[in-house]
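Quick one, tokens below:
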């Protein structure tokens, strides 16, 4: 069982690094892919790539190779680098979903709100918040204020999930209403109006599809992480603590697959790149 656990963990780790590295390479390589939406995707891919490089290898070195440092402060620092990358992945996903939320729910305000300067601000904030949070929690831990830091971790995890659920449900509601309007117009105006509205419907539907896939996987992983946080806070042992790494690796690894199958510009560039290589 132990061997299969590490085989699966390393497979997920390699998948995470390869997939996210490929997304970063594609966007940086092709000028047409350097859009506002893809800026958030690259930022999330960087966080997921860092997670794949740190989480499973560090856990493997500690558990199997017995290379853990005997210094408690060094171990705590390594743990909080791990937690920083974990939360950075979550906050970057939120900024990505918020960008799609504005594009779908408030399309007329998108161009005026989502300027280049605003995009840079949002990316910096998505990295700055987890960094400052972990700095505060680390100082609490070093001063033996363990319980408050535990509640802060749980609070952040709940907030991340709540924001994602709100954005996703709002987008689904908009797409549902849009589809209802399309059906009504199709019945009234027949063929011509159906074709005119088809592009808008498809674009929003695809955006919601890949955002839904990424968000559902994220929430599924975070439910288990929050369960573990609750058990630790209530004084019960968390036996599935070690599975946090592989679970988050699944979450980080599924993101590039979602872009490749559902995000049109990245999907097209993937096809061009792969077919050119075959020739």
């Amino acid at each position: 069982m132990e061997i299969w656990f590490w085989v699966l963990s390393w497979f997920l780790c390699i998948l995470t690094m390869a997939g996210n590295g490929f997304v970063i390479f594609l966007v940086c390589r092709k000028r047409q892919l350097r859009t506002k939406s893809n800026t958030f995707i690259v930022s999330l891919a960087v966080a997921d790539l860092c997670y794949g490089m740190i989480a499973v290898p560090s856990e493997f070195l500690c558990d199997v190779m017995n290379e853990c440092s005997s210094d408690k402060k060094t171990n705590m620092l390594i743990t909080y680098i791990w937690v920083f990358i974990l939360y950075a992945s979550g906050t970057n996903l939120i900024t990505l979903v918020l960008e799609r939320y504005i594009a779908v729910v408030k399309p007329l305000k998108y161009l005026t709100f989502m300027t280049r300067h605003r995009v840079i601000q949002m990316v910096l904030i998505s990295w700055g918040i987890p960094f400052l949070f972990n700095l505060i929690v680390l100082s609490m831990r070093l001063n033996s204020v363990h319980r408050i830091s535990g509640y802060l971790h749980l609070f952040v995890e709940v907030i991340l999930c709540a924001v994602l659920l709100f954005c996703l449900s709002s987008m689904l509601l908009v797409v549902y209403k849009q589809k209802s309007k399309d059906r009504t117009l199709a019945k009234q105006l027949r063929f011509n109006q159906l074709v005119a509205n088809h592009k808008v419907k498809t674009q929003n539907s695809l955006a919601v599809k890949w955002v839904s896939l990424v968000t559902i996987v994220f929430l599924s992983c975070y439910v288990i992480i929050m369960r573990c946080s609750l058990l630790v806070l209530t004084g019960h042992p968390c036996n599935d603590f070690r599975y946090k790494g592989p679970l988050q690796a699944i979450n980080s690894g599924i993101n590039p697959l979602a872009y490749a199958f559902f995000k049109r510009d990245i999907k097209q560039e993937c096809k061009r790149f792969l077919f050119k290589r075959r020739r």
